[in-house]
Design goal:
- This protein is mainly beta.
- The protein has helices at residues 157-162, 174-177, 434-440, 491-494; strands at 20-22, 25-37, 46-51, 57-63, 68-74, 101-104, 135-138, 145-151, 166-172, 187-197, 203-204, 229-232, 235-236, 239-241, 246-253, 260-264, 270-275, 278-286, 289-291, 296-302, 310-315, 329-334, 364-374, 380-384, 402-409, 415-419, 425-431, 462-465, 469-476, 482-488, 499-504.
- Strands 10, 11, 12, 13, 15, 17, 18 and 20 form an 8-stranded mixed beta sheet that branches. Strands 1, 2, 3, 5 and 7 form a 5-stranded mixed beta sheet that branches.
- A hairpin with a 2-residue loop joins strand 12 and strand 13 (235-236).
- The protein is globular and about 60 Å long.
- 46% of the residues are buried.
- The structure holds CU-O-CU linkage and copper (II) ion (2 copies).
- The site of one copper (II) ion has 6 residues, from loops.
Length: 514
């Protein structure tokens, strides 16, 4: 089904209001519910799941140093609106819909982090084996950054998020305020997602066919999902009217599998000022920006010399495989509003200070493989270091330790690897020969180590780990101990079974966080 581009105005998510203030800070309540929303002028309303009946969810905005509490209320119906295929996770077939919410990129105590097994069902009637609670506490002690919240329920995260359970979370601080960046209506979140629709407007998600030739359960879950429509802030290919001036865009790739490479067809650059963990050291001028699932880029676009023009935000990775697939375009900017007053905002050269972790004493180096495998039925699945979710914890740093993680990708494609609790720095990527690795398991380097891209030299919580490269990260495990996770953020991989526990051990305590 074709849909006309650039006929709907870009929606801006509203900001969540707190219910009250108490001694633990502002208190919010968020309901997860089923509802319908119009995602395109010519599409019938789509049945979705969302936070407070919105897709994407309302934006949560906080100031650094001001803790908040959020009660995440599961009010979803009993049955999933998407097909749940068989996987090794029995719990995926639980008779009730399970949710648990994770604040991606945040420094949060384990019991508020959204551990995949900390799920609960409608009205909190049944709870999973971990951290039985629905009121979460966010300390907001970290620097200003664009974070996001989303579902993280064991085995069905891809379905819950595809149904709509994601929203933005912005931390502000004084240092950032001093930079005089475009603000107010000139600071705009862009949540980019891909979807495919059925004719009746409902979401399409592939169901794996039963294999008639065997009596095994279904083949494994779909190993990827690529939609043929692109949505920004919940509208298919929207347009946005702008003034001829500078705007700040906080861009989030909240797609299940799809990566984008963004360009502007006016041949203008993006001035990137921030990444996952907040502001970079200095602004970098980018002609194209690659963004993997879960990554954020904070950019300024200057429309001041483009009055009267229409500028398209393009995606160089749009495959254009079928005539239905027009994913080479994302949205449009119409520079047709009159300039209201003078634009006094800045594109600063130096934006912040990022202390390097390179000179820390290194407590451990972990070599971790990203690899394909098969499950007990011979069905393909992807694994982290050849271990499944259920295998005992192996990534168990001490609280305060600095570690280097070397991610060796022996699969044929990039995996966006995400680690909870901390923000890391990328050291380098080094290419090796995959053929000789596959022959005798030995690493033969085909080049020297490559420094991270200039826009990757800040704090990151999600990193592109490309095929046939060793991607090295450095990180310090603070400020909390306990049970977290790390995983591939391609949701189809995360669910089956590219996710592992991460246990930060406080050597001063015997019971570590449980
Ligand atoms: Cu954005 Cu563990 O996830
Ligand atoms: Cu996360
Ligand atoms: Cu992956």
């Amino acid at each position: 089904m074709k849909l006309k581009k650039f006929v709907d105005r870009l929606p801006i998510m509203n900001t969540l209001k707190s219910e009250r203030k108490n001694k633990k800070g502002a208190y919010y309540e968020v309901q997860m519910e089923e509802f319908t929303q119009k995602l395109h002028r010519d599409l019938r309303p789509t049945r979705l799941w969302g936070y407070n009946r919105q897709f994407p969810g309302p934006t949560i905005e906080v100031n650094k140093g001001e803790p908040i509490q959020v009660k995440w209320i599961n009010n979803l119906p009993r049955r999933h609106i998407l097909p749940v295929d068989k996987s090794i996770h029995e719990v995926a077939h639980h008779p009730e819909v399970r949710t648990v919410t994770h604040l991606h990129g945040s420094e949060t105590k384990p019991e508020s982090d959204g551990y995949p097994e900390a799920w609960y069902t409608r009205n909190f009637k049944e709870v999973g084996p971990f951290f039985k609670r629905e009121i979460y506490e966010y300390p907001n002690r970290q620097r200003a950054a664009t974070l996001w919240y989303h579902d993280h329920a064991m085995g069905i995260t891809r379905l819950n998020m595809y149904a709509g359970l994601a929203g933005m979370y912005i931390i502000r601080d004084e240092q950032e305020k001093r930079l005089n960046l475009p603000k107010g209506k000139y600071e705009v979140p862009l949540v980019i997602q891909d979807r495919t629709f059925n004719k009746d407007g409902s979401l399409f998600y592939p169901r794996q066919p039963d294999d008639p030739a065997s009596d095994l359960p279904n083949p494994s879950i779909s190993p990827f999902f690529i939609g043929d429509k692109i949505l920004v802030n919940g509208k298919v290919w929207p347009y946005f009217e702008v003034e001829p001036r500078k705007y700040r865009f906080r861009i989030l790739n909240a797609s299940n599998t799809r990566a984008y490479q963004l360009t502007l067809d006016s041949n203008q650059p993006f001035y990137q000022i921030g990444s996952d963990g907040g502001l970079l050291q200095r602004t970098v001028k980018m002609e194209k920006i690659a963004i993997e699932p879960a990554e954020r880029v904070d950019v300024i676009i200057d429309f001041s010399k483009h009055s009267g023009k229409t500028i398209t935000l393009k995606n160089d990775l749009g495959p254009n495989a079928s005539p239905e697939d027009e994913t080479d375009e994302v949205m449009q900017f119409d520079v047709n509003l009159p300039l209201s007053g003078t634009d006094h905002s800045n594109i600063p050269q130096k934006v912040s200070h990022i202390p390097s972790l390179r000179h820390n004493k290194i407590n451990a180096i972990r070599n971790l493989k990203l690899a394909g495998s098969t499950d007990e039925y011979g069905r393909p699945l992807l694994l982290l270091d050849n271990k499944k979710w259920m295998d005992p914890v192996t990534e168990n740093p001490h609280l305060g330790a600095t570690e280097i993680w070397a991610l060796t990708n022996i699969t044929g494609f990039t995996h966006p690897i995400h680690i909870h609790l901390i923000q890391f720095q990328i050291l380098d990527r080094r290419p090796f020969d995959l053929d000789s690795y596959n022959k005798d398991g030995r690493i033969v380097y085909t080049g020297s180590a490559i420094a991270p891209e200039p826009n990757e030299r800040g704090w990151k919580d999600t990193v592109a780990a490309p095929s046939a490269q060793i991607t090295r990260l450095i990180m310090k495990f603070v400020p909390y101990a306990g049970d977290y996770v790390w995983h591939c953020h391609i949701l189809e991989h995360e669910d089956y079974d590219m996710m592992r526990p991460l246990r930060v051990i406080d050597p001063k305590r015997l019971d570590h966080g449980k």
